[in-house]
């Protein structure tokens, strides 16, 4: 858990900011025990990322992936800022517009993820008389919404909203993985996926839908296809990007490090699993994806997978009772076709 959330909540916990019975929105919310300081009034929690959303739900909170649509209705808006600056400004602009006149915007970020620039960012949106606190190698900045710069808010929202990418072949949005490019690993994997895939399959970690689009455009005998991702925005973008294909499609927003009972008896799965938790390499994420894939495939079903060459997935695939075939190694990647 990022210590930036503790920094964000500190002004509420020590009484510098008082929720009282006010209306509060927390964008990009994550769980922390000190979040109880925000529960004094009407609280709206927003989170795109399924694991973080699930943790909040397990702690007894209601959470939505959607940013509130009713502008000028909140007394406080708190934002835990992501590292992607386009996404961060997009959330800040929406958060600013949610505030009533005199409402307070409270933003926090790790110092290495933009925390040191927070004051300047908020000043650009028209916030004056800013206050800040630094702790946990992070910074929290807050200010009152009066006379905001509407042109700057418009520009930030326009830059961060859904838009055509890759020659308008896809729609994507800043903040999701590889949002404006074709991931190199996925592109290499597409060269080795069989063109005669059929029956029922899935894209584990579908992103905006590059691999899903490739498979459905090349394999005409697929009857049912699941697109699954932990990022709500990615699932919705994938839905739009592959809407032209006629096979039965289902789109699931969920955490693939946990088994998915809704997805079973599949003939094939394709995946390019994440392997970072923040900046740290974490092979347990890919391992959990592999275990979930094994449970979702029928006996004899195939897993098509790409991984960075330095990661030890051959052994993990074998430990998960897959018959592992390495099809390619090069350009920093390995391609596997594993059979259950």
Description:
This protein is α/β, with parallel strands linked by helices. The protein has 2 domains: 4-160, Rossmann fold (3-Layer(aba) Sandwich), CATH 3.40.50.150; 163-339, Vaccinia Virus protein VP39 (Rossmann fold), CATH 3.40.50.150. The chain is 29% helix and 33% strand. It contains 10 helices and 18 strands. The strands form 4 sheets. A 7-stranded mixed beta sheet has the order 3-2-1-4-5-7-6. Strands 12-11-10-13-16-18-17 form a 7-stranded mixed beta sheet, sandwiched between helices. A two-stranded antiparallel sheet has the order 8-9. Strand 10 (198-204), helix 7 and strand 11 (221-229) form a beta-alpha-beta unit. Helix 3 packs across helix 5. The protein is elongated, with a radius of gyration of 22 Å. The model has no long low-confidence stretch (mean pLDDT 94).
Topology of this protein?
Blueprint: H1 4-13, E1 23-27, E2 42-46, H2 50-58, E3 63-64, E4 74-80, H3 85-98, E5 99-110, H4 118-124, E6 128-135, E7 138-144, H5 150-160, E8 163-165, E9 170-172, H6 184-190, E10 198-204, H7 210-218, E11 221-229, H8 232-241, E12 248-253, E13 266-271, E14 276-277, E15 280-281, H9 283-296, E16 297-308, H10 313-319, E17 323-330, E18 333-339
Parallel strand pairs: 1-2, 1-4, 2-3, 4-5, 10-11, 10-13, 11-12, 13-16
Antiparallel strand pairs: 5-7, 6-7, 8-9, 14-15, 16-18, 17-18
Helix pairs in contact: 3-5
Do you know the CATH topology of the largest domain? Answer: Rossmann fold
Task: Find the structural class using helix and strand composition.
Answer: alpha/beta
CATH architecture of the largest domain: 3-Layer(aba) Sandwich
In DSSP terms, counting alpha (H) and pi (I) runs of 4 or more, how many helices? Answer: 10
């Amino acid at each position: 858990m990022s210590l930036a959330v503790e920094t964000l909540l500190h002004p509420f916990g020590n009484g510098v900011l008082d929720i009282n019975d006010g209306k509060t929105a927390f964008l990009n919310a994550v769980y922390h025990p000190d979040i109880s300081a925000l529960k004094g009034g009407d609280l709206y929690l927003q989170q795109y990322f399924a694991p973080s959303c699930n943790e909040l739900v397990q702690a007894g909170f209601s959470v939505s992936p959607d940013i509130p649509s009713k502008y000028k209705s909140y007394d406080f808006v708190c934002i835990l800022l992501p590292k992607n600056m386009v996404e961060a400004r997009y959330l800040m602009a929406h958060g600013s517009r949610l505030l009533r006149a005199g409402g307070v915007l409270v933003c926090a970020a790790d110092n290495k993820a933009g925390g040191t620039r927070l004051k300047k960012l908020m000043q650009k949106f028209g916030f004056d008389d800013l206050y800040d606190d630094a702790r946990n190698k992070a910074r929290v900045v807050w200010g009152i919404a009066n006379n905001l710069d509407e042109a700057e808010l418009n520009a930030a929202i326009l830059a961060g909203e859904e838009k055509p990418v890759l020659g308008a072949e896809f729609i994507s949005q800043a903040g999701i993985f590889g949002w404006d490019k074709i991931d190199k690993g996925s592109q290499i994997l597409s060269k080795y996926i069989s063109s005669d895939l059929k029956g029922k399959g899935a894209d584990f970690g579908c992103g905006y839908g590059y691999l899903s689009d490739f498979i459905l455009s090349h394999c005409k005998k697929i009857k049912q296809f699941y697109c699954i991702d932990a990022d709500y925005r990615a699932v919705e973008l994938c839905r739009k990007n592959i809407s032209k294909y006629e096979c039965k499609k289902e789109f699931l927003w969920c955490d693939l490090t946990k088994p998915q009972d809704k997805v079973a008896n599949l003939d094939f799965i394709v995946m390019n699993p994440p392997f970072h938790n923040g900046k740290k390499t974490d092979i347990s994420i890919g391992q959990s994806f592999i275990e979930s894939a094994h449970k979702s495939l029928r006996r004899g079903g195939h897993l098509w997978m790409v991984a960075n060459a330095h990661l030890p997935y051959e052994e993990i695939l074998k430990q998960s009772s897959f018959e592992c075939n390495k099809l390619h190694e090069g350009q920093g990647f390995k391609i596997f076709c594993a059979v259950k």
